[in-house]
Structure formats: C-alpha cells, structure tokens
Design a protein that fits this description.
The protein is an alpha+beta fold and about 425 residues long. It has 13 helices and 9 strands.
Length: about 425
C-alpha cells in the first residue's frame, strides 16, 4: 500500500512524503457459502420500470441485514461472481466482518434515483449510499454509482439482482484495464500510458521476464476520487490514510486527486506494482514481514520516486539517534508495526537496498522465494540458506554499514606525530 501526505492524515496515517509505499498477513481465504451460489446469466433481459427499483431495493435490504449481522456467507451470496477480481476483493471485505463487525450499517438507493433502466446485458445502474459506524468510531458514509446484475436463478427467497460493485467506465490498452469514475479520464490515460514501461522495469528487477502468468496478465487498475471511497473498497474498518493498495488477486487501487501529475503517478503505480511482483514470488508471499513487503515495493519504485538519497539520509540519522526499530516490531500489519510505519517503509527500503547491493538481485529474489514457497522457510533459515549468514548477523552488519565514515584529514593541517613510530632519521641520512 502507499501512504499519503500529512495533509490527508487520519488514524495511524501512512505518509506519502518520506516514502511512497501490504501486509505480512495471509491472503484472505475464501469464505464458505452455504447452499447454491447465484451466478450471473449472460445477456439475460431485465424488466423495466418501477419493478427494477423494488427488486434492487430488496437486494439492498438483504445486504444491509447481512453486513449488520456480520454474516459473511450471506453477504457473499448477494455478490455477483462474474468478475473474479471483484470477487477476491469482496471476500477480503467480508472477511473483515469477522474481525470487526459494524455497530450500525445500511446501504440504500439514492433518493434522487427515479427509475433504474435496464442495459443490453441485463444489468442496471443506480447511485447507492453506504452508511456505517464501527465500535468506538463515528458514522461514515460513501456514495457512488453502482452496478447490479440479474441473478441466474431468482425466485422465492433468492434475489432477482446481485451486487456487482462500482459502475465503472473502462479504458483498455495493451496489458492494462483502467477502471474509473466520471471525470477520471485524464488520469486513466496517464495510467494506461505509463504502466507498460513500469511493468517491464519491475519484471526485470524481480526476474519475472519469463513468467507468463504475470507478463501475459492484463493488469486491472481502479482509480478512486476520494480516500473514503478507497478505504471503503478495502473493508469497513479501514481508516488509515493511504494513496494506493494491492493484495494478491486484487486490482491495483489508486487515489487520484485533482490534476494528477504524470511523475507522481509513476512513483505511486510503481510501488503498488512492486507488490504485484512480490506476490508472484510464491503462494505464501503475503506472509512475509510487512517491512519486507513495503521495503521491496519501495526498492522497486525508487527509479521513479527518486528517493534513494533521502532514504539513506533518514536511516543514517536514525542509526545515530537510536531511531531504528527492531525488525520483529515491524513485521505484523495488524500489530505493533502500526506504531512505527515510517520505519516499516523507510527502514525496510534501506535494508532491501542493502541486501540487493551486497548480494545481487538474484539472491535477493531467491531469498524472498524461500519465504514465499508453499512450505515457507522462516526468515533466519532462508537467510542462512540463501545469503550464507544468520539474519542476526545480517542485521548487525547492516547496522555497521550505517555508521558515519571516518572523517578525512584536512589537507592543510599538520598531522599529529605517531607516538608509536620510531624517531625519524637525521636529514640527509638513512633511517
């Protein structure tokens, strides 16, 4: 994920100034759904007029009840399964209900919506508003145009429509599909234009040029016009400030404000695509420590962010004033690392640079693959096996590298005599 500027800070913000930067937590497992799952029937005609509004309204009431009751399976049964990326994102969204259920939740059709009109593919669109409050929090709302697809088997006790997420506009180009809302056309063009070169650069860094699973993939990118909408798309309890997000199997999500600059977008996209590449290291890649995941994403984006010198300056300063944090405290996205997010990104970035410069990208990638395999190796075991030393020794030697260089003597100053050296011979003689 990518942190945001201080002007956008919320609870435990992620700062986009120091380092444009998820998560050392396993990818959300699919939630079991009891009974048959409604699927979308392609090109199924939809009725017109008020009947659609009543049917979609009934779906919204079902969604409200399922989420308010933290019933993950019931909620997912109301979600369209036609888009595998959206399904993956919605599984993660629903999984969070089991961790943090809302105290209040509702979703409704916009009052201004007079009629929902069917489209050629049988879907309909309507503006909807989510309203919720988490325990100890304040009421939050987000509104956006949404899309609903006809269920294949509507009937008694089963909805006529399924929730299909935002009603996006789409821009497709070779290797990329950008989804955006009204007014996001210019940003979408920039993303489609710069992403191919960024992908090529990062595939090379991670030595993925021959991996057709990622090089042949059409990368989906979603552009959000507000941080609250982006946060809501992750899950209801998410309140930290951020400018980007990516998890395995999900789209790259970007916060796009007014007048986006191409160079800023390059750095943001590169960080998030660094996550896409790191998740390609193996099925357990997302279990790697948070500092490593964010650090290698920062390393991947350094060419575009141009923050290498700044990172070195900050980390060297931390090394002299006791500002470094133990790696174990930076490992868990949901744990103590939340209190040290600057170190997660910047300290992690510097360590990944150090490992790459000292051992080369091939060994760095093998090290990551060892920790990402189906039967992953612990960090110390992977470090010993691939890099040839313990992680404790690696950490110690990294810290040694941060010590100030010895000062060069002033060329005009007279050197102090060496008290241990023999007295010089007389002028003109031999020692």
């Amino acid at each position: 994920m990518t942190r945001v500027p201080a002007s956008f800070r919320s609870v435990r913000p992620r700062v986009l100034g120091l380092v444009l930067g998820a998560l050392a937590v396993a990818a959300p497992a699919p939630v079991a759904i009891a009974g048959p799952v409604p699927v979308v029937a392609a090109r199924q005609p939809a009725p017109a007029g008020p009947a659609i509004r009543e049917q979609v309204g009934a779906l919204m009431r079902e969604v409200s009840a399922a989420v308010a009751g933290a019933d993950q399976a019931r909620y997912l049964a109301l979600v369209s399964k036609s888009d595998p990326v959206f399904v993956t994102e919605q599984r993660a969204w629903a999984l969070d209900l089991g961790r943090k259920a809302p105290e209040e939740f509702s979703v409704r059709l916009s009052d201004a919506e007079e009629e929902l009109k069917p489209r050629d593919d049988g879907s309909v669109g309507a503006a909807i508003t989510f309203t919720w409050r988490m325990p100890g929090g304040r009421t939050r709302t987000v509104s956006f145009p949404a899309r609903f697809e006809r269920a294949a088997t509507p009937g008694e006790g089963r909805p006529a429509y399924l929730y299909a997420g935002e009603d996006w506009k789409a821009l497709e180009a070779p290797g990329v599909k950008v989804l955006f809302a009204e007014g996001g056309e210019e940003a979408a063009k920039i993303v489609a234009d710069v992403l191919p070169e960024i992908r090529s650069h990062i595939h090379t860094l991670f030595e993925l040029e021959g991996d057709t699973d990622i090089t042949g993939r059409v990368q989906e990118v979603k552009l959000y016009r507000s941080m609250r909408h982006l946060q809501h798309s992750i899950y209801l309890s998410y309140t930290d400030g951020l400018a980007g997000w990516n998890e395995p199997g999900e789209s790259v999500k970007l916060l796009i404000l007014r007048n986006p600059r191409r160079e800023s977008l390059r750095g943001l996209i590169a960080h998030e695509y660094g996550h896409v590449a790191s998740f390609q290291m193996g099925p357990k890649a997302n279990d790697m420590p948070w500092w490593l995941l964010e650090g290698v994403a920062e390393h991947a984006a350094e060419k575009y962010q141009r923050n290498g010198n700044r990172t070195r300056t900050i980390v060297r300063r931390w090394a002299t004033n006791d500002g470094l944090v133990d790696w174990a405290k930076l490992a868990d996205f949901r744990g103590e690392a939340l209190e040290h997010q600057g170190n997660v990104y910047t300290q992690g970035h510097h360590m990944m640079n150090y490992i790459t410069e000292r051992f080369g990208k091939t060994k760095r990638n093998l090290w990551m693959r060892a920790m990402s395999a189906a039967e992953p190796k612990a960090m110390d075991e992977a470090t010993r096996e691939v890099l040839g030393l313990s992680f404790a020794d690696l950490d110690r030697e990294w810290r040694e590298s941060l010590k100030p260089e010895p000062a060069e003597p002033d060329g005009d100053a007279k050197p102090e005599p060496d008290k241990t050296a023999p007295e010089p011979a007389a002028v003109g003689g031999k020692p």
